[in-house]
Amino acid sequence: MIVHFRLVVCGLLLAFVLPGTLAMAGISTIAITGTDAPGILGGIFSSVVAGPVNGVGNLVFQATLENGFGGVASTDDDGIWLFDGTSATLVAREGNGNVPDVLGANFQAFSDLAIDATGNIVVRASLETGPGGVTSDSNQGAWRYSGGVGELAARTGAGNTPGVGGGDFSFIPLTLQVARNGLWVHNGTLALGVAGVTLTNDRGLWSYDSGGTDTLIAREETSSVPGVLSAEFDVFGPPSANTNGQTSFVGSLKLDVSITMANRVGIWQYTGASGTLIARTGVGGVPGAVGENYTTLDTLTQNSLGQIAMRATLNVVSDTGIWLYTSGVGTLLARSATGGVPNVAGANFDSFDTPLLNDAGQVLVRANLEIGPGGVTATSDSGLWLLDGAGSLVVRTGSGGVPGLPGANFLDLTTYSLNSQGQIALAATLETGIGGIGSSNDSGLWAIDPFGNSQLIAQEGDVLEGRTVATLDFLGGPGAGDSQASGWNNAGQLAFQAIFTNGDSGLFLFSPTSADFDADGDVDADDLAEWEPAFGMNNNADADGDGDSDGADFLIWQRQWGTGVPAIAAAVPEPNARVLLLLAGAMVCQFSRILRKK
Fold first, then answer.
1. In angstroms, rounded to a whole number, what is the distance separating the alpha carbons of residues 585 and 570?
2. Count of C-beta atoms within a 10 Å radius of residue 187
């Protein structure tokens, strides 16, 4: 038995020094105009719009069809397709019936799409009035599709309002908020005059899980307000849902003796039907700003841990900041006009966009700087910052450091997303006249990791599918635990759209090299240096996506050596003695456990 065991270990070690099949980073074509539209015989794509991608590279997208091909007319030339990583499948189409749970009806238009972790889809759509008995009061709704089979989730005028017996929705938001586990939440409005609904109680907050459980979370006038005794809700802002069933939103209260214009706005977080007040205007208690009050609370983002990041203003004129709340405890991350700008000594923040928050608690924000302090000029006053711990500058306009384009400067940071690995996808334009940048190549897409190692994914002027790229963009957003859709996932895959100089457009999926552990665009010795300390300890070098760093990940690294962008022409490396010892020790332990069981 001992001899056989040694042979097994030696054989496994030999496997790690033999070259294997290369798995390179690359760009896959999803759909392109002028080509066949799957599911419609003779149909041809006329336009395509980039949609969200889930964690395994499935994405849903909307497209229109060329009229006159395959019998397509203006009444049925819009549809929804699912790309499963290999091919696209038609999910829904306007004007051809097949509306789930509304017999005889036709879809008329699609306004938003979402996809969960398992590839299930939620579609927000309107129906054609007339067919199927649809009226202007019942022509709006949302539908779920699982495995190609659809079902109605919610619809106006159809009586399906959770928690309001006999009530009807009069409005369902056009933008979907769907968490990775399929939980959909919305701040809809009820139809007046039905089930006791009036102008004072027609607004609320509802959730729908993928198992078919629909819940009224809170409602105007009829629900108590957590943290504010005897108050009543008035307006519910767009909610955010996570995979743990938590729903957060910015809301306002009805005015009365104790509720004034100064203190009526707050942020609440619900877990099921249990709510907590997180922050409120006009009542003090601002973290990092003793004696001051919030005057506005802007749109928030929430991660799967229940943390909330928000932008807010204080009672000092034009004083804005970014805060992070964890279990109800707030931390000031950045504030205007107070210095402390990471990596820009002497500078002041001037304004902030809505922050993005990932599942690691990192906050990404696009901000503008005051012109003057710290040498900031009108061409170098915008950037992206990660606000975690001391904070760090990711990229900045007018200051060089454009990945893959030495000597170039960013001009405008147009679209961005943050995943749970701390990696950032960025669409940006470049200054012309320097670094070889002109009007024909002044925009691009980049992937940037937490350590500043970055990769130029595609640039204006590149050729994709035999066509020259004119513009590039993708669906931005958190890309992590928040329920906002994004084209950037935790595996570093980016679904993006290209418009070409000939007027065509296409959808593409960028997938990184899995053994590129330092995210610099290639697989080399530096990635081995990342793998060695992670071996058996954490998943910082997890090439096979199984949640740990082990010998299997080393094998993938060894097979991918020399791949990536830019590719490195080199001999396949042999593992050093320390690596072999690590592998041998791990394998001996594993096989010893196996033998003890026999």
1. 29
2. 22
The distance of Cα 419 from the centroid of its chain, to the nearest Å, equals 7
Count of C-beta atoms within a 10 Å radius of residue 417:
25
| Per-residue pLDDT tens digits for 532-591 | 888 887 777 776 555 678 886 786 677 556 655 332 223 344 455 444 455 555 444 443
Span 80-136, pLDDT tens digits: 999 998 899 999 999 999 999 999 999 999 999 999 999 999 999 999 999 999 999
Q: Who contacts 526 (Cβ-Cβ below 8 Å, separation ≥6)? A: 518, 520
pLDDT score, position 272: 84
Residue in this structure with the two tokens 């908020």, named with its chain if needed: 177
- Give the tokens for residue 382: 């915008």
pLDDT at 479: 61
Q: What does each C-alpha distance from 319 to 295, 372, 386 come to in angstroms? A: 10, 18, 20
The long-range contacts involving 117-121, CB below 8 angstroms and separated by at least 24 positions, are: 117/54, 117/55, 117/56, 117/180, 117/181, 117/182, 118/54, 118/182, 119/54, 119/56, 119/58, 119/82, 119/84, 120/144, 120/145, 120/146, 120/182, 120/210, 121/60, 121/80, 121/82, 121/91, 121/145, 121/146
d(C-alpha 541, C-alpha 371), whole Å: 41
What ranges make up the beta strands (E) of 18-166? 26-32, 45-49, 59-65, 78-83, 88-93, 107-115, 121-127, 140-146, 149-155
Distance in angstroms (rounded) separating the CA atoms of residues 172 and 484: 16
Phi, psi dihedrals of residue 533, rounded to the nearest 5°: -70, -20
Dist. CA 421–CA 490, nearest whole Å: 6
> How many residues does the structure list for the chain?
598
- Which of 201, 200, 258, 204 minimizes the C-alpha distance to 229? 258
Cα Rg of the chain, angstroms: 27
Strand partners for 386: 364, 392
- What pTM was estimated for this model as a whole? 0.83
